Amino acid sequence: MMRGDARSYAAARKERAADIDRWLADLFRTACPQPHGGREGRNGLGGAKSGFSSADERGAGASLGGPGAPPAGAGAVLSGTGIALLAVGSLGRAELAPGSDLDLVLLHNGQDDIGRIADRIWYPIWDSGLGLDHSVRTVEEATKVAREDLKAVLGLIQARHIAGDPELTRAAREAVLAEWRADSRRRLAELHESADKRSEASGELAFLLEPDLRDSRGGLRDVQAMQAVAAAWVASAPGPRVREAYEFLLDVRHGLHLVTARGADRLVLQEQDAVAGALGLLDAEALMRRLAEAGRTVSHAFDATWRTVDRLLSGPAPRGRRPLADGVVEHGGEVVLARGINPKDDPILVLRAAAAAAEAGLPIAPATVSVLAAQSPPLPVPWPDEARDALVALLGAGRAAVPVWEELDQAGVIVRLIPDWERVRHRPQRNPVHRFTVDRHLIETAAGAASFTREVSRPDLLLISALLHDVGKGWPGDHSTTGEIVARDIGARMGLAPADVETLATVVRHHLLLPETATRRDLDDPVTISRVAEAVGSREVLELLAALAVADGNATGPAAWNSWKASLVSELVRRVRSALSGSPPAPAPSLSPQQASLARHGGGAIRVNGGAVTVVAPDRPGLLWRAAGVLAAHRMVVRSASAASASSTAVIEFAVIPEYGTPPDPATLEADLRLVLAGRLDIEQRLARRTRSVRPARVPVAPPRVSLVDDASQTATVVEVRAHDRPGLLWRIGRAFGECNLDVRAARVETLGAEAVDVFYVVDRSGQPITDAAQRVQVREHVLAALR
């Protein structure tokens, strides 16, 4: 299907609304008694005259197909009947998608038989199978309900006359609009609070893997809220860019309804390719990139609307202008240009204004952003020092830099400053670990890195590397490798010294080195530390990578960064720092006081503390996977685990969460762990029952991958397992090692979203790594078989 078909969706929605209008008008005509002298004529969306042409009603709905929109349907006028049928919601806006319900209001002036008339309209609608949300009100009742019910008033503000007495409809709408405007301070505050609660529950459309097209932040309801603000005469109706984004959101919902054959608003993963095809887009990634752009456009305008509302409703701002930087002042709570300043004369002004705004915690006035975007000349290449300093000052403002960056990005300024930004702009990350698009993740990481500028010798390089660390995701291949190349070009463009460009490129190339090594390699193995030290090369790069790891992890999401990972990275940094300074390697780990206390139990001890499970026992083959089997049998999901040995004592630390519901009783869990350690509990039968009760994945998942990593250790064979997580996965992997007569000397287990990334250091029964080629193949195939 070509994109031209998607463009016809808007026409299809209006045509369907017109068909529904005619049908409803016929139902209304049949249900209502004809008044003496009554007349029939054209009205509604398809009539020659709707009766709603005043300026206030055009402001309320004309820009998005509301009451002032061009006609598209037909109905019956029965003047003087004292009854009218109104459409609200998607039918009222002529945006009826294939699976949309009908929202109708039957107005009357007190007829005794209104219940009978209503039934003669509602029952045929129900019989047709269409969903229906309906109400029957007098004008006074409608006004009273709208006074207290936000949903009702939003519907009536954009209500559209279908059939009956147009004067009754006019009276209801004028009364509702008058009260909405008169009480705008209270009602708009209520609307804003409702929108905040909705977005808190549904997330931000631009950054969700499975967004709710209607309720997410930046979705359809935010545009409708802006229309309601415009109807209150407090701010302008949404402009062309927002209307275009809104139409695209409507098209996506239309395509989703066609693909699923039902009314749905959540765009789930398994439908995204089909919806992309319905809209004539290449694939799901192209769809989600367009969707992210539309969501951010709406969200940006939504924020600007509420800034206007707050400014107007809070009274006049203090007069005067407060200087912030050269050519930049604060005026009325916003950052504007000083009088007489011409952006055409100063290419650095845009960055200087952005830095001043972020450092003051203020927005740049929309008009100022437009002027800067339209009139600022290109920066010379390489950048002057002042331009680079302004960029670093902007990023160094931390969280305050994010909205300012968004303002510039929406205006197209960032791409002109950093042309390579276009490759990552609005690029989705189809990975449950990431909560942001690539570009938003980069600025979020830079904002987080600002907290560590006191802890590194080169804060400027920390902030710039944080901004660019994932820039390689805009190109094919390993993003760390491509990112190094792109970072070199951008660093030179920014005017960094050659040595600084090398440092920047090294940090971008190795930005995942510390977290991946800490969670997937044995820190007690000397090879691990020596390889990291060789890669980073200097303490300066190490401290930059350490700070970036924290900022990157926090900006990615809770599944990517936690106290367990933070402690491992910190320990790795400590050991590598010692190696770089020439200090002797750290001694073999000893048990912590708590672990030593548990070890005194002799036969094994377990401690369950919320989501932390510690097992300390004499080291023996199969200890890790048997303990993991007990956890799986109790419906506990292992999010991370580490296993190590010290003085013939094995220490296993699990981080677990219940699969659903409340966690099991700690005493019962501890008892079963002790039984399995003592060899008195066969966990396999319990897990078999659990496996039968688990539903298979609804969407296709990538096949598992098992790799034997060469040169990662001189004393063990490192086996890396990547697979879709499921109950008992760690138990299956461990049992496969046991069946191959291998012992797990150390392990790092992590679950990222729904994907398990597990690394095991295994040795044969003589304590040696696997060197025989045939045996290595056998181990890989045996583990793969256990995962299927």
TrEMBL record:
InterPro entries: ACT-like_dom_sf, ACT_dom, HD/PDEase_dom, HD_domain, NT_sf, PII_UdlTrfase/GS_AdlTrfase, UTase/UR. The keyword Magnesium applies. Residues 612-690, 718-788 form the ACT domain. NCBIfam families: PRK03381.1, UTase_glnD. Its cofactor is Mg(2+). HAMAP family: PII_uridylyl_transf. Belongs to the GlnD family. Residues 1-323 are annotated as: Uridylyltransferase. Modifies, by uridylylation and deuridylylation, the PII regulatory proteins (GlnB and homologs), in response to the nitrogen status of the cell that GlnD senses through the glutamine level. Under low glutamine levels, catalyzes the conversion of the PII proteins and UTP to PII-UMP and PPi, while under higher glutamine levels, GlnD hydrolyzes PII-UMP to PII and UMP (deuridylylation). Thus, controls uridylylation state and activity of the PII proteins, and plays an important role in the regulation of nitrogen metabolism. Has four distinct domains: an N-terminal nucleotidyltransferase (NT) domain responsible for UTase activity, a central HD domain that encodes UR activity, and two C-terminal ACT domains that seem to have a role in glutamine sensing. Uridylyltransferase (UTase) activity is inhibited by glutamine, while glutamine activates uridylyl-removing (UR) activity. One of its GO terms (molecular function) is [protein-PII] uridylyltransferase activity. Its EC number is 2.7.7.59, 3.1.4.-. Residues 438-551 form the HD domain. Keywords: Hydrolase, Magnesium, Multifunctional enzyme, Nucleotidyltransferase, Repeat, Transferase. It catalyses: [protein-PII]-uridylyl-L-tyrosine + H2O = [protein-PII]-L-tyrosine + UMP + H(+); [protein-PII]-L-tyrosine + UTP = [protein-PII]-uridylyl-L-tyrosine + diphosphate. It comes from the Bacteria. Residues 34-67, 580-599 are annotated as: Disordered. SUPFAM superfamilies: ACT-like, HD-domain/PDEase-like, Nucleotidyltransferase, Nucleotidyltransferase substrate binding subunit/domain. This is Bifunctional uridylyltransferase/uridylyl-removing enzyme.
